[in-house]
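Chain A, query sequence.
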Amino acid sequence: MQKRLISLDAFRGITIAGMILVNNPGSWSAIYPPLAHAQWHGWTPTDLIFPFFLFIVGVAITLSQKKQLEKHDRTYLYLKILRRTAIIFGLGLILHLIPYFNFAQIRIPGVLQRIAVVYGISAVITMNTGLKAQAWITGGLLIFYWAIMKLIPVPGYGAGDLSVEGNLAAYIDNMLLHGHMWKQTWDPEGILSTIPAISTAMSGVLTGHLLQSGKEKVEIAGWMFVIGWLVIVVGLLWDIVFPINKSLWTSSYVVFTTGAALQFLGFCYFLIDVKGIKKWAYPAVVYGMNAIAVFVLSGLLAKMLVFIKVTGPDGNSMALKTWIYQNWLASWASPMNASLIFAVVNILFWLVIMIIFYQKKIFIKI
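Chain A, predicted structure.
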């Protein structure tokens, strides 16, 4: 029986901790630049986090599907994929609805919604195709997205406009999701940009094949490092004509972040699976074993801290989060440091909770 890949759990845990870190500053007006998304074209370390998670989703699909096909028929697996997709998508909608449950203006896209759709499509593709077809699909989707974004004209802007207002993805989203997006006219997890996001997960699927190839572990790690650097270079070259852009999830962004993900997974795999150095990864593994659960729970806590109001020193009502930030942190630390400390404490709080879950063998599977 194939052992669980601890390095993948560690990578997943580090990624989820990164999500919690960047999603929970003490103040959105006081953030260190690396912990904020690039305003449009370009990237920051924060822009690596979401594609890392989708890449991990793809790796996990490959590692789990073979075992599942040995135990169950395809109908069972299709139903399982559909169920998991629906639950993750539904959790994303619930997070957007809480606490006001304003169905009229609910944001339909979102992080969990994209994870759900990308997982569902990637799992079906993986179950029905082989390695070569999967590689062609991965590359083909990226070229297709590049072509339509550059060649199809947007009314009032023409073809190839990649500005916030004039790009094709924003135009499609605004037509189909108007009033239900993150911004008034576009959404970073919109419909069209989900196409290349599927390639991000499929890159993970291809990496999963490498991990199951039967090669020596040190050779597998070596290939991840080599391929990772080559893919990063390709992404940077593609950036010249199709800029790296997280909000548009451009093809160059997919290739570049896939290379970075290969480097990061390769590093974890080399330390844990090749060298057997595992103790450092315990906190990450604890996070990684309950990744979706801790993401949802941390999101709920963040909403509650804003929803719950307390009376400030001036007698005015303020969010509990603001009160904690101002009175416990900003009273002695600079705004940016206080904001960072708030986020780090958030991570440590959930780490304690997840350690309790881990020790009691509570693993919330979807």
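Residues 1-21+282-366 form one domain. The chain has two domains: 1-21+282-366, 37-276.
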